[in-house]
Amino acid sequence: MMSKEVRFEVESVAAKGATMANVITDKETGVQYLLAIYPNVGSGLTVLVDQDGKPLLKK
After folding, report:
1. Which of 18, 39, 44, 49 has the fewest beta carbons under 10 Å from its own?
2. Secondary structure percentages of the chain, helix, strand, coil, to 5
3. What span, in angstroms and rounded, lies between the C-alpha atoms of 20 and 1?
4. Are 11 and 27 in contact (CB under 8 A)?
5. What is the model's pLDDT at position 46?
6. How far apart are CA 23 and CA 14, in angstroms?
7. Cβ partners under 8 Å of residue 4, min gap 6
8. Are 35 and 22 in contact (CB under 8 A)?
C-alpha cells in the first residue's frame, strides 16, 4: 500500500504585484521552488538557486 505522507510543504510568501506566491519545498530532497501568480499576466514556477546556481535546499 502506498504511503499517504505529504511530500511537499507549502509556505505563503510576499511577492510584489503577485496575487499569490508560495515557496514549495520537496520534503524528500529539500529543493525549494517558487510559485507566483500575477493578475492579467500569468503564473510561473521555478527552482530557487543559490549564488552558485545550485538548487536552494531547506536546512
Report:
1. 39
2. 0, 50, 50
3. 35
4. no
5. 96
6. 10
7. none
8. yes
In angstroms, how far is CA 28 from the centroid of its own chain? 14
Write the Ramachandran bin of 52: left for phi over 0, alpha for psi from -120 to 50, otherwise beta.
alpha
Q: What cell does 35 get? A: 510559485
| pLDDT block averages, 10 residues each, the chain of length 59 | 84 87 96 92 94 92
* Nearest CA-CA partner of 13 in 24, 2, 22: 22
